[in-house]
């Protein structure tokens, strides 16, 4: 009897080992908060595999990985943070670009964005939301744009920082700020029912937001992680990214 129990226990351990896991944890940059829900559903329909998204700023997610968070795949908002993880041995493969982001200026008020740089200098705009540029690539891009326009120092006192783009989106949609810099995905998200006014920022005014993906060491032995990685690079996933305002190759 004891021998049979030991065999059953061994079989259970074997079947629940990483190689047989059918669930994966995916660290997801906050700009993908709406997109990941669509990708998650489509991937499950195609494979039966469930993904658990953990959403945050790319910098914070990177720190969590370094501190031992058991994530299998990382979808960053840039190539810098996954590149650092690769150099420090948290992945055996270099990150790849899966999409390129688009920065917009946005408001829930019809403030007029024809000459938005002049608008930001006026009394009409008292608060401007930007994600923390140290940990959020879209915040870094917004700061680059303001420096390019030569107005960053003039409006610094108006800037309200958020930990991630999802927090910035909340500031914009709830009217906590008059204006914010965010991703185009916000304004094309069907789940957002709040009318928004926005303008695409000229991409020549900031460094390309090349978003990087990698399989982390925790997911290296999990075939499901490899399937998700390949899915993100598939034509079906690329079509979803394009629908939400991202550029793909």
**Stretches with pLDDT under 50, minimum 5 residues:** 1-21
Q: Main β-sheet: number of strands, strand sense, barrel status?
A: 5 strands, mixed
How many structural domains in the coordinates?
2
CATH class of the largest domain: Alpha Beta
**Helix/strand structural class:** alpha/beta
Estimate percent helicity: 40-55%
N-C termini distance: 59 Å
Label the CATH architecture of the largest domain.
3-Layer(aba) Sandwich
Q: Could you give me the name of the CATH homologous superfamily of the largest domain?
A: Periplasmic binding protein-like II
Q: Which descriptor suits the 3D outline? A: globular
Order of helices and strands: HEHEHEHEEHEHHEHEHEEHH
Radius of gyration: 21 Å
Q: In CATH terms, what is the fold-level topology of the largest domain? A: D-Maltodextrin-Binding Protein, domain 2
Count every helix, treating DSSP H or I runs of 4 or more residues as helices: 11
Largest beta sheet: what is the strand line-up? 2-1-3-10-4
The count of strands amounts to: 10
